[in-house]
């Protein structure tokens, strides 16, 4: 079977994402990642990155709230928060009331909030903007992810960069290698298609080109998804019923499950240096206040419990968490008590290696770009800092010569 036929089958059946096929992403089980236990770099300066993607475009103004700016309430009178509801960071800025755990971490100087993060000529399409964020290329379409390019430079072992998301995200796809995908949503086959059929499609043929063999490998990966699913569920059940259940580290939500697996890997000192996890649902065009509070509550609980757990071990204290979304929302509320697609927003950096505080100039709420915030910090400054300080790589090599940096990591 040729590559085109395989690709058509995958796209029509939804067995695996087109991105994973294009990247040649490799399917791994949790046990295969844990086989590298004890292989983490021994040097104390070697850190571990946990990247959390908030899909849908999180409203940054109701996450990190500029309550001291009169323009905030004027732009969204029903959607805004009163000053006495907000978890204060200083005299003018605070966190959403559902973010009590992260507020505590801020008080411990472990949470850095970078405001006004964005890129030139912003795109308000979910797909294009997420593509820009994950490839790190705002001026032209990219074909590799910024962490995928790091993986290429680090030797290409997929287990160095692991995703616990349903499919391999573009950010882990390099030019010559791709990260390991350990999915948790199971294999959904179309009617009339069996695992036996998928297994047959996975077989390579004599004389096949490398590209055809690569496509066949994606089918082989799909066959392993059921085993991955069992392992993820078993890990979540152990977390819920085990000794850490009382502290909230068990898997009650998708993000908690993903971070539970990350925690297991970190504590086992696996070779993985970068983990990718995610939480979706932030496209809040209507009834935003209630919906966002639910999502931010999930994020807060999952992340604060994970960070607190990591603080209890030497290996865990090497972890740096970065949280971002593909864009923020418009300053003015819409007629449905929600907000529409916007531009600049916040990036959170958390961990023992982070110097907590507010970073970046807060965007003006009155000097807007067609109703949207003007970015004040280029997102490549964030990536360059993470590559340099966490992954100990040359950012210029992965970010096409970019030289900007933040001062939030030490």
TrEMBL record:
Key words of the record: Signal
Range of residues in the leader sequence: 1-22
InterPro entries linked to this entry: DUF1501, TAT_signal
Keyword hit for Signal: yes
Record Pfam families: DUF1501 (PF07394)
Protein name (record): Uncharacterized protein (DUF1501 family)
Natural source organism: Allocatelliglobosispora scoriae
């Amino acid at each position: 079977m040729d590559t085109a036929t395989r690709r058509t089958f995958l796209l029509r059946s939804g067995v695996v994402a087109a991105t994973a096929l294009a990247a040649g992403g490799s399917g791994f089980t949790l046990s295969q990642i844990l086989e590298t236990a004890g292989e983490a770099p021994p040097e104390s300066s070697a850190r571990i990155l946990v990247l959390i993607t908030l899909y849908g475009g999180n409203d940054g103004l109701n996450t990190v709230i500029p309550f001291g700016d009169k323009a905030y309430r004027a732009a969204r009178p029903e959607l805004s928060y009163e000053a006495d509801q907000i978890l204060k960071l200083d005299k003018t800025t605070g966190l959403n009331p559902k973010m009590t755990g992260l507020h505590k971490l801020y008080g411990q100087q472990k949470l850095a909030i970078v405001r006004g993060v964005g890129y030139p000529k912003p795109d308000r399409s979910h797909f294009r903007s997420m593509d820009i964020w994950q490839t790190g290329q705002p001026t032209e379409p990219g074909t590799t992810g910024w962490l995928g390019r790091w993986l290429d430079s680090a030797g290409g072992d997929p287990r160095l960069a692991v995703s616990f998301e349903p499919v391999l995200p573009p950010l882990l796809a390099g030019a010559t290698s791709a990260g390991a995908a350990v999915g948790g949503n199971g294999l959904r086959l179309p009617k009339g298609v069996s695992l036996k059929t998928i297994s047959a499609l996975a077989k390579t043929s004599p004389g096949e080109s490398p590209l055809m063999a690569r496509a066949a490998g994606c089918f082989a990966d799909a066959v392993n998804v059921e085993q991955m699913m069992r392992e993820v569920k078993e890990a979540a059940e152990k977390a819920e019923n085990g000794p850490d259940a009382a502290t909230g580290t068990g898997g009650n939500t998708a993000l908690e499950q993903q971070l539970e697996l990350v925690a297991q890997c970190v504590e086992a000192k696996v070779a993985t240096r970068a983990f990718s996890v995610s939480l979706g649902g932030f496209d809040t065009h209507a009834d935003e206040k209630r919906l966002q509070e639910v999502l931010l509550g999930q994020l807060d609980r999952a992340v604060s419990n994970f960070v607190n757990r990591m603080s209890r071990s030497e290996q865990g204290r090497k972890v740096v968490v970065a949280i971002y979304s593909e864009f923020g929302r418009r300053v003015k509320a819409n007629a449905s008590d929600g907000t529409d697609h916007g531009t600049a927003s916040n990036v959170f950096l958390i961990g023992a290696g982070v110097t907590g505080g507010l970073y970046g100039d807060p965007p003006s709420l009155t000097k807007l770009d067609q109703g949207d915030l003007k970015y004040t910090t280029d997102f490549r400054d964030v990536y360059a800092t993470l590559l340099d300080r966490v992954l100990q790589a040359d950012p210029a090599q992965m970010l096409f010569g970019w030289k900007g940096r933040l001062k939030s990591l030490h």
